[in-house]
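Q: What residues go here?
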């Protein structure tokens, strides 16, 4: 006879956090669509002395156990910076995974919701992370599609467990798979050319990471803060977080997949960051950089690959809704063709962000994944 579910708090120490992270990988063993994260990255995200988000966030991880075996996990967190901006008392849940067992999911959400109430919160949303750089949104459609490094994969039974708890849709994100044409549509290139000349803009590329970091590193993330400021749940990045992400991400970029738009004074007004898909490389690495995980990731970045992930597009508020996005894709598309990329993954786009989605109207595309943020009053 099975014992009752036991919920344990996970202390923020590496050994215990590794169990928390590893459960989220082990649960999907044998699933062809799941893309595991790097265990070391996930652990670092959860450590207050490593992740600068803890300067204005607090969090508690929980695991569900039965008969001495892990059955589920959940992270409850509060982003005080966002709450100060919105005036809400809002908690978040994330990193949630569980077997298809109501007793397990109920116990996990009981723990997360109680923690949120004990900290004075009146509502909870999720799945969300500390910042927009973390994974967010529960998959509700597209379970038979290979995921990306930037997105969450979950089993089809997850939404029903969440909705049974009284959570309701707050907002959806959509994801497109775009076919990269050998030649850009004439109308698209005309739009890009008109926008370029009208606003006296130009695109630039870098071949040196140190130069990119020195000239536009901080400007890039400040632009993200500006461009994303009004988006759902956005948490503005602090200078400390910006330094953290510069060191974390610029070193792994493939520079020919990065396009920067500047005005006549060389001021940054737009950026498009893409990366050859690491989905297969991460699956081969199975969460580990050593001994050979790094080789699988390098192969994904610089080896043969027919998919490119559109990781981030940001345009300054002054130039939004003026067709500036077209310059980025017009600049990057020839590189994609040269590198042999046949498809582009849009990754998450808010369902009501029509300005972003309109940029794909000139291309063959299909909406192949949808994910959801849920909200519940406590």
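A:
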């Amino acid at each position: 006879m099975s014992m009752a579910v036991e919920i344990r708090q996970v202390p923020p120490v590496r050994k215990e956090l590794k169990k928390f992270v590893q459960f989220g990988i082990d649960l999907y063993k044998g699933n062809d669509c799941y893309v595991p994260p790097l265990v070391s990255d996930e652990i670092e995200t959860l450590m207050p002395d490593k992740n600068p988000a803890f300067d204005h966030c607090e969090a508690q991880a929980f695991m569900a156990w039965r008969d001495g075996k892990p059955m589920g996990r959940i992270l409850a967190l509060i982003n005080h910076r966002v709450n100060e901006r919105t005036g809400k008392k809002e908690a978040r849940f994330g990193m949630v995974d569980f077997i298809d067992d109501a007793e397990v999911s109920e116990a996990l959400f009981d723990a997360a919701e109680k923690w949120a109430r004990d900290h004075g919160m009146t509502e909870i949303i999720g799945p969300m992370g500390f910042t927009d750089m973390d994974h967010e949104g529960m998959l509700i459609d597209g379970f038979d599609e290979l995921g990306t490094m930037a997105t969450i994969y979950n089993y089809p039974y997850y939404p029903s467990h969440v909705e049974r708890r009284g959570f309701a849709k707050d907002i959806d994100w959509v994801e497109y798979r775009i076919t990269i044409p050998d030649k850009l549509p004439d109308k698209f290139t005309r739009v890009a050319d008109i926008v370029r000349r009208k606003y006296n803009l130009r695109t630039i590329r870098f071949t040196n990471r140190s130069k990119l970091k020195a000239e536009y590193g901080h400007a890039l993330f400040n632009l993200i803060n500006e461009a994303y400021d009004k988006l759902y749940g956005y948490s503005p990045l602090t200078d400390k977080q910006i330094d953290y992400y510069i060191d974390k991400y610029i070193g792994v970029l493939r520079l020919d997949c990065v396009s920067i738009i500047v005005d006549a004074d060389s001021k940054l007004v737009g950026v498009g960051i893409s990366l050859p898909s690491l989905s297969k490389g991460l699956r081969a690495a199975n969460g580990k950089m050593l001994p050979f995980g790094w080789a699988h990731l390098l192969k994904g970045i610089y080896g043969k690959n027919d998919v490119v992930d559109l990781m981030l597009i940001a345009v300054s508020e002054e130039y939004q809704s003026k067709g500036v996005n077209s310059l980025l894709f017009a600049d990057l598309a020839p590189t994609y063709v040269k590198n042999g990329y046949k498809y582009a993954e849009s990754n998450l786009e808010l369902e009501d962000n029509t300005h972003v989605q309109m940029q794909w109207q000139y291309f063959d595309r299909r909406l192949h994944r949808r994910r959801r943020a849920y909200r519940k009053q406590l």
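A: Context that may help when evaluating the design: The first helix runs from residue 14 to 26. The chain has twelve helices and 14 strands.
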